[in-house]
Amino acid sequence: MNTRFFILFSTLTFLIMIFQNCTNPKPEFSEDVHSFSNPNDVVVKHIDLDLNVDFANKIISGNAVLTIENKTGARELLLDSRGLNIIDAFIDDAQSTNFKLGESVEFLGQPLSVRIKSNTKKVTIEYETTAGAAALQWLEPPQTADGIAPFLFTQSQAIHARSWIPCQDTPGVRFSYSAKIKTEPGLLALMSAENPTKKTIDGVYEIKMTQPIPSYLLALTVGDLEFQTLGERSGIYAEPSVINKAAKEFEDTEKMIAAAEKLYGPYQWERYDMIVLPPSFPYGGMENPRLTFLTPTVLAGDKSLVSIIAHELAHSWSGNLVTNANWNDFWINEGFTTYLEHRIMEELYGKDYADMLASLGYQDMVKAMEILGYDSSDTHLQMNLKDRDPDEWEAGIPYDKGHFLLRTIEAKLGREKWDSFVNEYFKKYAFKTMTSDKFISYFESQISDKALLDSLNIQAWIYGPGIPKNVVKVESDAFTKVEAQIETWGKGIPASKLETDNWTTHQWLHFLRNLPKGMNRDQMAELEEWFGFTETGNSEIKHEWLLRVIENQYEPAYPAIEAFLTSMGRRKFLKPIYKKMYEQPEMVAFAKFIYQKARPKYHPISVDTIDRILEWQG
Fold first, then answer.
1. What distance in Å separates the CA atoms of residue 148 and residue 186, rounded to the nearest whole number?
2. What is the rounded (10 degree) CA torsion for 140, 143, 145, 147?
């Protein structure tokens, strides 16, 4: 090959590569193994809902009108669906079109294929939900706080939105929405959107959400609810018997919003309202934009558990604003949010308070490592959830290992530089998605100090197992005092003589977690008699105490286990207690006895988890 021909050949090859890159641009949406949808061809930009909430038949029915952008001239729109009864489909001006549900896949449901044209702008799906919809819990009046009216709430995270709305159920796709909700008069309908504060006479509500959100943040709740304002931008919804207690508990919400804005820039969702749901809600909180869902188990009466508000509020930046592109990168949402939560609490209540939170988080991370195994790939921050339920993970990994990665970066970089980076990060990627790879690239592009980057070894944190050696640990003076009291008690000093005045919830948790192994009946009775753990109204403390009850087979407190497990459905509490009971052969029958009574009261998400733990056959 002569030189001239070689140059010509090389130039043509280069031009072909450029042309291919221009005609086949990098896909906008990263692969999501938990979605059947095809947003790189056709993407949903807006949804208009017209839905009827039928409590008598426990069905949501109506229409979802999807405004789409057909980017490639595709003739098929692929949506996610799980257990939905699809009645009909139309395109644009009510033109009937073909649709087909594919084969069902475990966890994922079925792909819904809708025939479209290259110029189709709107797709209307007429549908109804079916029994067992994973996102929905229908409650009879006795299952609510007031026992007067029925109640409905949704839980769309991670991939349950598809069980009540046909959609592109992936965190990579964002859309705005509006809704017309029709329900029984006397009930109030609310969504993750701009909401009413009073009931209408006819039970019809017009709701809109102008900011684009991913499907897992779609939320609906209907019940006998009242509203109280907490300040200029915040308020609380709850049943009438709960509203005053909830308003008192969360009266510092405006201060939290101000503290978060001071640290991380303007709040971009206009209002931050909350709702206290019935006890069966499976999580502590869910960060649905403009309407955080909360469990009543955080109503301790002394504001001792309000860090959950800081956490859900922090999601307004990390998660709701900058979102993990798929569930393998869940730490992008939760690691950042846990870090932000601690910074907000430090701003409001001081460094000692934040250090206690961090110390408990470190304990949770270590516990998760011990459960999974330090060499397990499940301890990577970037998870591999292919063919797995994205709801099943050990919180100590995405939440706490993610938090300690960011805490370590802060320590190495310096708080001022790190805060500047985080602020720019939220500005640059607002209303966009993030992956682990993209985060590393962006971080490295902003940090010129190669030695610093090498010392951080972020790759090992995200793609490697266990706890990296460069982790920045945290010391808590308050916990050191707790440990001294545990040692004193271990030497035979009566519990009544221990110095526990003015201890916080976090100190009590540290106390319970670090009690000696194998305590006898007399020791357990002494602790119960003096500190009254079984009767406490603090759910976090009671949960930790009941784990010690099971470990030490303290039978006098067994009725409290049953009472606790049948009074609420928060998965964080249910999972460890049932698991610990199931690990002890003599308690398996008791665990199943309790579960048989409690199971009908639990949300489908909690039921799925406990069914697996107990190998439940019904």
1. 11
2. 50
Distance CA 297, CA 448 (A): 46
> Rounded mean pLDDT of 525-549?
96
**Residue in 226, 287, 312, 540 annotated catalytic:** 312
pLDDT at 189: 98
Set out the domains of the chain in order of their start, with CATH numbers. 32-224 (2.60.40.1730), 226-316 (3.30.2010.30), 321-463 (1.10.390.10), 489-614 (1.25.40.320)
Terminal CA-CA length for the chain: 76
Please give the structure tokens belonging to residue 36.
């059947």
pLDDT given at position 422: 97
Confidence of residue 93 (pLDDT cuts 50, 70, 90): confident
Contacts of 104 (CB under 8 A, 6+ apart): 110
Contact 432, 211 (CB under 8 A): no
Half-sphere exposure at residue 512, Cβ-oriented, CA atoms within 13 angstroms: 28
Query: Quick one: pLDDT at residue 24?
Result: 52
pLDDT at position 392 is 85
CA gap 477, 481 in Å, rounded: 7
Kindly state the tokens that stand for 68: 């789409």
Phi-psi region of 231 (alpha: psi -120 to 50; beta: other; left: phi over 0): left
List all residues 6 or more positions away from 232 whose beta carbon is below 8 Å from its beta carbon: 254
**What does pLDDT average to over the chain?**
94
Q: Say which DSSP state 318 is in.
A: B
Average pLDDT for residues 6-30, to the nearest whole number?
54
pLDDT of residue 8: 47
pLDDT value for 387: 93
* H helix count then E strand count, the chain: 19, 21
Would you mind telling me the total number of residues written for the chain in this entry? 618
Residue 182, burial from CB neighbour count under 10 angstroms (0-12, 13-18, 19+): middle
Residues whose CB is less than 8 angstroms from the CB of residue 82 and which lie 6 or more positions away in sequence, other chains included: 108, 109, 110, 133, 134, 159, 160, 162, 163
128 counts as catalytic? no
Mean pLDDT value across residues 321-347 = 97
Buried-exposed string 571-601: b where 16+ CB fall within 10 A, e elsewhere: bbbbbbbbbbbbeeeebeeebbebbeebbeb
Asked if the bond preceding 158 is cis, omega within 30° of 0, the reply is: yes
SS (H, E, C) 556-601: HHHHHHHHHHCCCCCHHHHHHHHHHHHCCHHHHHHHHHHHHHHHHH
Long-range CB contacts (within 8 A, 24+) of 58-61: 58/131, 58/136, 58/138, 59/128, 59/129, 59/130, 60/128, 60/129, 60/136, 60/164, 60/220, 61/127, 61/128, 61/129
Which pLDDT band, with edges at 50, 70 and 90, does 10 fall under?
very low
Rounded average pLDDT over 501-507: 94
pLDDT in the model for residue 571: 95
> In the structure, what pLDDT confidence band is assigned to residue 529 with cuts at 50, 70 and 90?
very high
Mean pLDDT of 539-553: 97
3 state SS of 522: helix
Which single residue is written with the structure tokens 């139309």?
90
Catalytic residue of the set 205, 353, 399, 595: 399
Whether 312 is a known active-site residue: answer yes
